[in-house]
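Lab notebook page, bench 4
Experiment: in silico fold of construct C2
Operator: M.H.
Input chain length: 337 residues
Purpose: comparison with the prior construct
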Amino acid sequence: MAIFTTASRKIRSAREFFRGLTHTAHPLLVQIIPIRRCNIDCGYCNEYDKVSEPVPTVVMKRRIDRLAALGTSVVAFSGGEPMLHPDLDELVRYIRGRGMMAGLITNGYFLVPKRITALNEAGLDFLQISIDNVDPDEVSKKSLRVLDRKLQDLRKYATFDVNINSVVGGGIKNPEDARTINTRARDLGFSTSIGIIHDGSGRLKPLGGSERKVYDDVSAAISSPWQVVKNLYSGIRGFQDNLADGKPNEWRCRAGARYLYICEEGLVHYCSQQRGYPGVPLESYSITDIRREFSTKKACAPYCTVGCVHRVSTMDFWRSPQDVAQSRPALGSRLGL
């Protein structure tokens, strides 16, 4: 059964990849928020609160219907902590029923065998956990010591793909933790990635000497021949080399087109760090909006650390130079991000 599930997922992934190469007026990846609340509070995170109620399931289904109508390839739940939504499994199943791939970005705390099995049965395609340190501290509770049992359960029960992301920067005390986390994830057979995170104020800082050494070593391991197949998506990380030195990247950000971020209010944003732009309700978002944003140069792009937007935009680096200027300043520039 697991072999069949994996083969089916690879076929569907290949189909969406080739559709993306030949047709640009549809989203490749949408991250959608079913609940803003989170059960933990990481010091660098500006994407959660402690009070929000879940978005009603009927509303979430309407939004998923709209994404299907736009031709979306992959819909991934993010948060907050999406596993706090009481009907998450039903929503995963609904995404799959509309012909799209389903993903989940979680802090991992609720991944017990029963929930993993339920996600298998719902048809989840992939899951990502970002683990920040080995031992919890005041910056982050997403720690290997807390989550290792969850990782072992994922290895034993999950039929979906699992990626474990380690991080450097942003106030993480011990950069060597990223190496430990990445090694442990590879040993368990998961795909891996490494990210450079901003600090609590949203500012990007160049990596220090020890941070850079860990970043380079982990990046080399991710890119090694025996890891490259497993890391086809997460291994796209060349954009981070300049960021590690605090230098800008020159690239064509396709946020608002190939990548959408849908907040709990149902508005379309460029990404989690640029909430407010374009700020159009999903129910009225159209192919015209997608084409406009595909061609719009984003003022925030040079120092962007949002890996999923970089990776999704990679498919279109070679075509369609962006010749439409943003009509208003990026939200991040107003916030000093």
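Observations: The radius of gyration is 19 Å. Residues 2-22 form the longest helix (21 residues).
Next step: discuss at group meeting.
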